[in-house]
Amino acid sequence: MRDDAAQLWSLNQRLLTVVLDACRDELADLGIDTKEFFVLAEVATSPYPAELAATLMMPKASVTVYVRNLVAKGLLRREIDDADLRRHRLVLTDEGAAARERAVTALAAEFDRRLARITARDRGELRRILLDLLSDEEEGG
């Protein structure tokens, strides 16, 4: 059973990697790499650098580098948090939101291209299974 779980985890990871690799040129056209995309994708739900690092399971120093790059590219900006003037909150610029949307669209199209290989019923079942697997996370762990 353990080998089954490891194989499923590995297959899932390989699928995600293949989809990201297939979209590398689109991301490059946007001026971002895959790690920077993950930052753009999560910053709205995790707007503080330390929180973002935890969400992405990346070292804080790495997130700092990605944030610095994205700020320099005009895709993110730092704002002082009105609730706590000692903290900076990260906010997508209009350009950052547009880049994120274009990247998500490219990734979704590539993933959809792969999903087209299975029936609509299997797609629905896959969605149900993935939601079930995430239910602990959605309920707070």
UniProtKB/TrEMBL annotation:
Any one of the GO BP annotations: response to stress
Keyword Nucleotide-binding part of the UniProt annotation: no
One Pfam family linked to the record: MarR_2
UniProt xrefs under Gene3D superfamilies: Winged helix-like DNA-binding domain superfamily/Winged helix DNA-binding domain
Keyword DNA-binding included in the entry's annotation: yes
Keywords assigned by UniProt, alphabetized: DNA-binding
Stated name of the protein: DNA-binding MarR family transcriptional regulator
Annotated source species: Prauserella rugosa
Highest taxon, organism lineage: Bacteria
Sequence ranges assigned to domain HTH marR-type in this UniProt record: 1-135
Signal peptide start-end: none
Record GO terms (molecular function): DNA binding; DNA-binding transcription factor activity
